[in-house]
Design brief:
86 residues; 2 helices; globular
């Protein structure tokens, strides 16, 4: 099973905007409630496959969508996803 990246938002407006932009770009998404382990100002989050992360991140940055952060699930715990750190 492919790793899923969770995108958390500070507002519902930004979550819905991201949903529209990512769907328009034909990125496979799953909009769902924000897990209680991820503290965010919005009750909606979006799951994307890790293979679509770069494309999704580029759209989010280009369109200046405000996000809380990217997360992944590791042994039942959500951790901040930091793909650009080495």
């Amino acid at each position: 099973m492919e790793l899923l990246i969770l995108i958390a938002f500070d507002s519902t407006q930004q979550a819905l905007r991201a949903e529209m932009l990512l769907e328009y770009a034909d990125i496979e998404i799953d909009t769902r409630p924000t897990p209680k382990e991820v503290t965010a100002g919005c009750a909606l989050s979006i799951d994307i496959p890790a293979s679509e992360f770069e494309k999704a991140d580029q759209i989010i940055r280009q369109e200046q969508v405000e996000i809380k952060g990217y997360y992944y699930k590791d042994n039942g715990t959500y951790r901040l996803y930091k793909p650009y750190e080495r």
